[in-house]
Amino acid sequence: MASYSGDKNAYLKRLRRIEGQVRGLQRMVEEDKYCIDVLTQVAAATKALQAFSLELLDEHLATCVVQAAAAGGDEADEKVREASEAIARLVRS
C-alpha cells in the first residue's frame, strides 16, 4: 500500500490544481500572452510540483523507509537506496 493513501484526496486535490495551472499555460500560449507572463506562470507551476514532490518524499521517508529500517536487512538497504535515488532526481530537476 502507498504511504500517501491516508492523504490521497489531498494529494489529488493538489495535482488537480497543478493541472489547472498547466491548462492555464496552454491557454496563455494560445492567446499569445506576453512571454514574461507565461514564464512567471511556468515558475509557479514548477514550484507547485516541487512542493508536491517534497511532501510526497517526506511521507515516504516517514513511513516506508522508517518501517523498512526498523525491519532491517535487504529491504532496509533497498528503501534507503530508492529514497537516495529519488532525492538525487529531485535535486537534478
From TrEMBL:
Determine the domain of life of the protein's source: Bacteria
**This protein's record includes keyword Zinc:** no
**What UniProt keywords apply to this chain's record, in alphabetical order?**
Copper
Please give one Pfam family short name: Trns_repr_metal
The record's CDD domains line, in alphabetical order, gives: CsoR-like_DUF156 (cd10148)
Q: Which InterPro entries match?
A: Metal_Tscrpt_repr, Metal_Tscrpt_repr_sf
Signal sequence span is none
Which family is it part of? Belongs to the CsoR family.
Q: What is this protein called?
A: Metal-sensitive transcriptional regulator
From which organism does this entry originate?
Pseudonocardia aurantiaca
According to the entry, what is the taxonomic lineage of the organism? Bacteria, Bacillati, Actinomycetota, Actinomycetes, Pseudonocardiales
